[in-house]
UniProtKB/TrEMBL annotation:
Belongs to the glycosyl hydrolase 68 family. It comes from Streptomyces roseochromogenus subsp. oscitans DS 12.976. Keywords: Calcium, Metal-binding, Signal. GO terms for molecular function: levansucrase activity; metal ion binding. Pfam families: Glyco_hydro_68. The keyword Transmembrane does not apply. Substrate binds at W80, A151, R233, D234, Q316, T317, E318. This is Levansucrase. GO terms for biological process: carbohydrate utilization. Its cofactor is Ca(2+). Ca(2+) binds at Q262. The keyword Disulfide bond does not apply.
Amino acid sequence: MLLRLATGVMALAALGGLATPASAAPAAPSKPQTPQYSADDDYTAVWSRADALKLKQDKTNTAPRVSPDFPVITDKVWQWDTWPLTKLDTKTATYRGWHVIFALTAPRSVPFGDRHWYAKIGYYYSRDAKSWKYGGDLFQPGTAFGSRQWAGSAALVGDKVYSFYTASGHDNGGVNPNDPLQRLALATGRIHADTTHVWFTGFQDHRIIAQADGKLYQTLEQSQQGPIIYAFRDPFVFRDPRDRKVHLLFEGNTAGVAGTYQCTKRDIGDVPYGHQVPDNAKYYTGNIGLATADGDSMDHWKLQPPLLSANCVNQQTERPHLVIRDGKYYLFTISHKFTFAPGLSGWDGVYGFVGPALRGDYQPLNGSALVLGNPEDAPTQQYSHYVMPNGLVESFIDTVPTADGGTRFGGTLARTLVLSLRGNRTRLTHQLDYGFIP
């Protein structure tokens, strides 16, 4: 069944003017009002093909080359998708002077390309936000849902940590690349620290808090005919300062059997004359989803319509996250070159949008949405960028070309990049130390 394109109920744009004497000066035209929506309205913004056709790299949005002699945080595990301990306002949190981050990890004995099927959430701590000590697995064996854990987020409330994650694979399914089931899960625990280290207790009670419903978000069963893995993953938790509710962003796909979606005029946008949309663009239906908690306990969650769709543009809008600044909502997501729909091309990197509210008419940053992409001569050097409210961008090192024509696998944190964020424009300014996440 096709999911109808959400359009929302538009607010009235104009009011009738008052009659005035003929000699009176004409009333100044009223400023157009930006439509306002609540989290549970059905308006979904669009990243269109017309936007994506504007993608272009320059020095303001191209990451510097990663040196092949980069340092490694630990030789015990590969490290990739990484997120800091935060407060519900999305700002990074410290605990008793310690900085804490979480990451997907797998033993370095596992081939780098197979790491996703062995992934567990590990944690790290540091006094200076860059000299990280690996603390081991966050969860005890056998407690988490799924057969592996994929990316999520972690919020600190008092000394209690709410750890959201993707339960990937069926429960106790083992290492099986053909089992891509994804559900959103939550476990709660407590953080502890002394002068030498950080540790956690609890995380025994895990719950599935959201699953794809087939009406708003594509299910595993609906996705089977698609060329690229479906998504219902990467929960990012935050409190909206306007409605004061706790929400989750996540990566999803438009509901319906893969290949039955029909690209709309809104998906396509104002493209140049002669632009043809290949028929198989219909398989590319990425979106940024939303779920809302029924209260601060975060016990129960309601699926909401997507905030933004990339139908006929991109299949994957991974690890969505939010920065709220100067009354504007900056929505970021990461994506790959290979997940763009046919007829479009982008880069492995981070893309962004700006809107007037959590749910609103998001517009692509820089006109196309490209914020930072890998250089052409190192197209997979780093990935999984995470933009923090302070403008710093962390990511992990993926596959780096070497001088002899080979490659070096990373599995560790890249240099932190500094982003200028003003209005609807972004600009890379410089880079800092490896893995600096304050």
